């Protein structure tokens, strides 16, 4: 990626009629392929051995970590229902950042189109999970609370946080990628390695923040109607 290129959206690899394949699409497909291959390799022999492999243990720890964070945010009200969706968001952003250490690979999350797509997925998931949890009537009622005059403001609030979610991720990933590229071209070998490690850490942190915010938005929509907290007391 040249110094004048801000995002991989600007790199067109193939174009025929209305079909246009940019570097963003290519890097997204590579990230998805790595995730699918990694998941298959890590889980293909589950149950065949008494002692789990390191890959299986890593997958188990990752899933338990994501589930634990969701449970903590939702006060134990959600269970595992959000793990597949939120976990996929987290792993996609994290894997894209990890692959960013490979020369020539630009994380697709450094593209505004990708981050907008991820934010829209969260935006759509909020009413879906909310309706599934509460029913369409109670969920839609939240938009006119405390008075019907709040309807446009509640809708604008949903839209503004979606925009903020996309821009936050794009800005942080893109700026980190550009900074590493500039340092690599200026200073000797040691400093680029340090900045690559810093970029990797920043990418994983951004994945965590995005997943946490997505969980907060979704669980807030699921609990608006006053969903009773599940009791953890046995025999009550």
Overview of this protein structure:
The structure is a single chain. This protein has 236 residues and is mainly alpha-helical. The chain has one domain. Helix content is 67%, strand content 4%. It has 7 helices and 2 strands, in the order ββααααααα. Strands 1-2 form a two-stranded antiparallel ribbon. α4 runs antiparallel to α6. The longest helix is centred in the last third of the chain and has 36 residues. The N and C termini lie far apart (62 Å).
What's this, in brief?
The chain has 7 helices and 2 strands.
Total number of β-strand segments?
2
Largest sheet: 2 strands, antiparallel
Structurally, how many domains make up the residues?
Answer: 1
- Mean pLDDT across residues: 78
* Total helical segments: 7
Helix content: 55-70%
Order of strands, widest sheet:
1-2
Helix and strand string, N-terminal first?
A: EEHHHHHHH
- Beta-strand percentage? under 5%
SS class: mainly alpha
Q: Indicate the radius of gyration in whole angstroms.
A: 21 Å
Q: Report the span from N to C terminus.
A: 62 Å
Give start-end ranges of low-pLDDT stretches.
225-236
Q: What would the principal axes of the Cα set say about the shape?
A: globular
Comma- or semicolon-separated keywords:
236 residues, mainly alpha, two-stranded antiparallel sheet, 7 helices, 2 strands, 4% strand
Sequence-ordered SSE layout with sheet pairings:
Elements: E1 12-16, E2 19-22, H1 23-43, H2 54-74, H3 83-99, H4 112-134, H5 136-141, H6 151-186, H7 190-223
Antiparallel strand pairs: 1-2
Helix pairs in contact: 1-2, 1-3, 2-7, 3-7, 4-6, 4-7, 6-7
């Amino acid at each position: 990626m040249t110094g004048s290129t801000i995002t991989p959206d600007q790199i067109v690899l193939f174009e025929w009629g209305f079909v246009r394949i940019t570097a963003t699409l290519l890097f997204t497909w590579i990230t998805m392929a790595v995730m699918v291959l990694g998941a298959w390799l890590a889980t293909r022999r589950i149950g065949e051995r008494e002692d789990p492999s390191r890959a299986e243990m890593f997958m188990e720890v990752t899933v338990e970590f994501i589930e634990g964070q969701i449970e903590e945010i939702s006060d134990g009200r959600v269970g595992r229902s959000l793990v597949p969706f939120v976990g996929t968001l987290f792993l996609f952003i994290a894997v894209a950042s990890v692959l960013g250490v490979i020369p020539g690979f630009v994380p697709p999350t450094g593209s505004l189109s990708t981050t907008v797509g991820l934010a829209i997925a969260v935006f759509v998931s909020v009413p879906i999970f909310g309706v599934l949890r509460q029913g369409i009537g109670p969920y839609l009622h939240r938009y006119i609370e405390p008075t019907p005059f709040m309807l446009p403001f509640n809708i604008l609030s949903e839209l503004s946080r979606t925009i903020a979610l996309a821009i936050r991720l794009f800005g942080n990933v893109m700026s980190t990628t550009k900074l590493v590229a500039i340092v690599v071209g200026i200073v000797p070998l040691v400093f680029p390695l340090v900045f690559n490690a810093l970029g990797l850490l920043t990418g994983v942190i951004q994945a965590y923040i995005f997943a946490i915010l997505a969980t907060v938005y979704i669980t807030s929509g699921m609990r608006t109607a006053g969903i009773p907290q599940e009791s953890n007391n046995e025999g009550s």
